[in-house]
Amino acid sequence: MGEKGANSDRLIARIAERQHGVVTTSQLWRAGITKDGVSGRLRAGRLHRLHRGVYAVGHTKLSFEGRCLAAALACGGGAVVSHRSAAAIWRMIPSAPGPVDITFPTAAGRKRRAGIAIHRSSTLIAGATTRRSNVPVTRPARTLRDLRRAVPQPLHQQAVRRALDLRLVDEASLGREPDLTRSELERLFLRLCRRHHLPSPEVNARLGPYEVDFLWRDAALIVETDGFRHHGHRAAFESDRARDAELQALGFRVLRFTYRQVRDESRSAAASLRALLHGSLAA
Prior knowledge:
Layout: H1 3-18, E1 22-24, H2 25-30, H3 35-43, E2 47-51, E3 54-57, H4 64-75, E4 80-81, H5 83-89, E5 100-104, E6 116-120, E7 129-132, E8 135-138, H6 140-148, H7 153-165, H8 171-174, H9 179-195, E9 202-207, E10 210-216, E11 221-226, H10 234-249, E12 253-258, H11 259-264, H12 266-282
Parallel strand pairs: 5-6, 11-12
Antiparallel strand pairs: 1-3, 2-3, 4-5, 7-8, 9-10, 10-11
Helix pairs in contact: 5-6, 6-7
C-alpha cells in the first residue's frame, strides 16, 4: 500500500470512529479513495456495504447507534431517526432488530430502502430534531408523539414513564398527554356511546400502520378524540389532518371530537355519529 493510500485509510478510520463505524461514499472520495479503491477494499473485506452509498469500516458488528446513523446517512436530505428507533436512541425503550425508523421533513414520496422504515412529515421542523451521540434524531417530546401512533399503548406509556425518569421531558411539556387525556377521553367517549345506544366501537384499533382511537369497521367510520394538547398546537393539527387524509384515501370516514364536545355536547356528537352509522350500515 502506498503512502497516499495509508493516509486515506487513516483519515477514514478517524471519520468512522466519530460515526459509529460507518462512512459514506462522498467521505471516501474526499479522503482520496477512488471508485476502484472502494471496490478493492470491498473485495478485501475492509469495507462492507450497508446501504447504497454507506459502508461499515472493518466489520459489520455495528452498535444500534451505528445502524441508525447508517440508515439516516443513506437517506440524506435532512432525514432523522424517529419513532421507535428514536425512542431506543433516547433509552426510553429497548432497542430491537428490524428496520430503522427514518423521517423526512417533507410530504413528498421517497423510494423504499431495505432495512429502513420511511416516514414523511411536513411538520418536522429544525426545532423538533437534534443529535444524540452524533446521530440525527427527533427530540424526546416529538419522539413520544410519533411513538404514540406506532406502538401499542402499554409500550408508549412505558416510554413516557422512562422519559420522565430520565428527565428528557417534563409534565409541563407533555401537557395532559398521554395517560390522563387518552384514558379520560376513552372513558367519556365510550360512556357517550352507551348513553345514546350507539354500537360499541373497537378501541385503539390497528389499520395498517396506524392506530385509531375508535373504529366501526363495518361502517368504515373512525372517530379520533383530541385532548387539550391540540389546542393552539399547529404542528399537531397539521400532522393529524395529513394522517386523516391517508385514512380517508383507504375508504374510511374520519370524525374528530374535542374533549369539550365529548363532555359537554354529547347529544350533538351522538346525533352525528348515529346518522353516519345508520347510513353506512343501511347501505
